[in-house]
Request: fold
Amino acid sequence: MAEDEIEIDTDDLQRRMDGALASLRTEFASLRTGRASAQMLDPVMVEAYGQPTPINQVGTVNVPEPRMVTINVWDKSMVGKVEKAIRESGLGINPQLNGTIIMLPIPELNEERRRELTKVAAQYAEHARVAIRNVRRDGMDQIKKAKAQGHMSEDDQKLWEAEVQEMTDAHIARVDDALEHKQKEIMQV
Reply:
């Protein structure tokens, strides 16, 4: 072993691949499955005080029953803006006002809409796979660069490449498992 051999930062690669999985989970949480969840409102932004603001920063989001989400808006002047943001969000939910409380009844999903949502979930999963493969490519580039600069033997190169590939395969498998679970959840009546 030469003294100037370098280590590949697998912790950074692991962290970045885990980040892609966390992002996927966030996107999956925003998909409606016919059951109420506070996370389904995470992507909705309200124009509040001159800037886009998440709904959970202008009111309290609750799930009092399986098919109902309520938002208790703290500032009365914001109720109309929150209602408008929900209507324009594409969630397919019709808000109902009750003073400063906005009620969001979650309608049953029909078969066609469930199939559309499974396709959206598959797209989210593919984006996560691409992100993980991009991290893999970066890791492989680091290894090739170290080998080209003479900091790594060919045997070490193969070991590092195998480790990065193993990490990639494990993360891709976790994406596939998450997708399968989400699709079952969406199709469940």
Q: What stands out?
A: The chain has a mean pLDDT of 87. Residues 46 and 84 are 8 Å apart (CA to CA). Strands lie at 45-48, 51-54, 59-65, 68-73, 96-98, 101-105.
